[in-house]
């Protein structure tokens, strides 16, 4: 190859690598462009009615395709009934624009080819309101540290630190149950509790936040719930029966930053009932209120954190680099969470991109791994807070 021809080739490569990714525009409009085929039988020679029905069928296919793009294959398979009964009957509500590209008849069938733009943002909102998108997003792992003192206890009981008293917390049990129902992952619970001494962690006080965060890191928790539950005998009476007043105070710390991201304080009063002591019932009732409040706060805080913009590098390498890189860039443009992509380094068989993404690098990896490419695949080599490394692999490698 002559020098002039090589320069032209390299100029073309540089132009492609430096070409800005249209991810920002795609994310702002939150639309997905789809080409679909609509088919409808022609009954009694009524082609106009058949055409209209065929277009409607094509639009339903477009919305179904958009549904499959905003959730994982597992979530898609688990929610077919929701798609069929709730989304498809209102398919046209999610269509921004559509255009019939072509139409014909074949063996008494009316065929239409339709280009549609589906409002994926509205579709995601519907799925989020139904709680479907939450099943796709990994919920945080939570460590619970609650010191509890009933009316019979001289001092609070807790399982971390130097405390010889047997530990049993009604507030901890209720909190763990509530978080599990919300699909949060509770760690360090029951026999799985970590021993701070094993990890050389010392609690200067029961409620020391720094030591709590350090312990949470040892069990790979994302959040730590730190607090207390206490109960005292009330001055009030119900006849001859004692009334107990309970208070549950909880604070939630982000393990990464050490900052408080949620917190609450709730009270409840109760008397003995059904053979259960009044002080225990009061704690359980206060814990129920606190658990419901805290679960909602954690859910909001975690969602905001996941959607927070992160900047990290994406390193890409592999064989047949240029055409595969172009295909990958087109996929980037369809991912609405990508705010911006700029080249940092370029070469004939590798590139490093600076990416701004609404979410963590792990979320980006999960999204891109769901993408299918024609004739090749991708392998994730490395994932960290600052770097995602991707390698192109051949179809033969995938089949092996």
Tell me about this structure:
This protein is an alpha+beta fold and 400 residues long. The protein folds into three domains: 18-135, FlgT, N-terminal domain (Dodecin subunit-like), CATH 3.30.1660; 141-306, Rossmann fold; 309-399, no CATH class. The protein is built from twelve helices and 13 strands. The longest helix has 29 residues, at 278-306.
CATH architectural name of the largest domain: 3-Layer(aba) Sandwich
Quick one: overall form? flat
Uncertain segments are: 3-29
Instruction: Count every helix, treating DSSP H or I runs of 4 or more residues as helices.
Output: 12
Q: Give the N-terminus to C-terminus distance in angstroms.
A: 36 Å
For the record, the CATH class of the largest domain is: Alpha Beta
Give the overall pLDDT as a whole number: 83
Strand order of the largest sheet: 5-4-6-7-8
Percent range for β-strand residues: 25-35%
Give a nutshell description of this structure.
With 400 residues, this protein is an alpha+beta fold. 38% of the residues lie in helices and 32% in strands.
Main attributes of the structure:
38% helix, Dodecin subunit-like, 3 domains, 13 strands, 400 residues, disordered N terminus
């Amino acid at each position: 190859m002559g020098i002039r021809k090589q320069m032209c080739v390299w100029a073309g490569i540089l132009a492609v690598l430096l070409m800005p990714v249209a991810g920002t525009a795609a994310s702002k409009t939150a639309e997905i462009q789809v080409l679909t085929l609509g088919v409808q039988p022609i009954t009694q020679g009524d082609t106009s009615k058949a055409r209209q029905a065929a277009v409607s069928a094509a639009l339903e296919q477009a919305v179904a395709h958009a549904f499959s793009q905003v959730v994982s294959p597992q979530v898609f398979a688990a929610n077919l009934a929701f798609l069929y009964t709730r989304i498809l009957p209102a398919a046209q509500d999610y269509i921004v624009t559509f255009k019939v590209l072509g139409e014909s008849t074949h063996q008494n069938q009316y065929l239409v080819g339709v280009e549609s733009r589906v409002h994926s943002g509205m579709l995601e909102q519907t799925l989020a309101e139904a709680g479907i998108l939450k099943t796709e997003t990994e919920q945080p792992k939570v460590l619970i540290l609650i010191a509890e003192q009933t009316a019979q206890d001289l001092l609070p009981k807790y399982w971390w630190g130097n405390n010889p008293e047997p530990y049993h917390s009604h507030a901890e049990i209720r909190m763990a149950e509530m978080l599990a129902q919300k699909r949060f992952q509770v760690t360090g619970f029951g026999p799985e509790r970590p021993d701070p001494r094993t990890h050389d962690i010392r609690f200067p006080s029961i409620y020391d936040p720094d030591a709590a965060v350090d312990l949470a890191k040892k069990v790979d928790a994302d959040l730590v719930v730190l607090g207390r539950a206490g109960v005292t005998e009330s001055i009030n009476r119900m006849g001859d029966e004692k009334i107990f007043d309970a208070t549950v105070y909880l604070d939630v710390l982000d393990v990464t930053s050490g900052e408080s991201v949620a917190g609450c304080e709730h009270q409840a009063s109760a008397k003995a009932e059904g053979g259960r002591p009044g002080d225990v019932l009061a704690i359980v009732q206060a814990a129920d209120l606190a658990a419901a409040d805290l679960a909602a706060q954690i859910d909001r805080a975690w969602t905001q954190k996941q959607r927070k913009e992160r900047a990290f590098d994406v390193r890409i390498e592999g064989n047949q680099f240029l055409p595969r890189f172009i295909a990958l860039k087109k996929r980037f443009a369809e991912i609405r969470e990508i705010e911006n992509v700029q080249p940092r380094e370029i070469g004939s068989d590798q590139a490093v991109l600076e990416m701004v993404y609404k979410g963590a690098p792990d979320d980006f990896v999960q999204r891109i791994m769901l993408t299918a490419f024609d004739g090749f695949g991708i392998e994730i080599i490395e994932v960290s807070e600052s770097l995602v490394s991707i390698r192109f692999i051949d179809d033969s490698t995938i089949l092996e």
